[in-house]
Specification:
The chain has about 110 residues and is mainly α. The chain is about 75% helix and about 0% strand.
């Protein structure tokens, strides 16, 4: 019986794996930057007290996507920031704009974006 991902033909050479991940990272940078821009817009809205429910839901979705994709690239600390953002925005009540902004900024700084 085949094992999960057996047919994926992952490189057995660690250097080839690093090169593949680096290529994928570079290819996905524009999308990552777009996701951070969406979070930054949500932070601005939260600070102004004008964040809409659709904007909040979009930020939750974006944080969730970032948690998964950054984890795949080995950015565990950033994954934790993204999860914290997601959980904070999913909670009922007003958004703590200061905390939200700090977490987004910390993720960006850790990634040098």
């Amino acid at each position: 019986m085949p094992q999960p991902f057996e047919s994926a033909k992952a490189p057995k050479d660690p250097d080839a794996t690093r090169k593949l991940l680096s290529t994928l990272w570079e290819r996905n940078l524009p999308m990552l930057r777009d996701r951070f821009a969406e979070l930054e817009h949500a932070v601005v809205a939260a600070r102004a007290g004008t964040m809409t429910q659709p904007q909040r839901e979009g930020a939750i979705s974006t944080a969730h996507k970032l948690a998964g994709s950054l984890g795949m690239f080995g950015y565990r600390e950033c994954t934790e920031f993204a999860r914290r953002i997601e959980q904070h925005l999913e909670a009922t009540g007003p958004v703590d704009a200061l905390r939200f902004g700090e977490d987004v900024a910390a993720m960006q700084a850790a990634l040098s974006l």
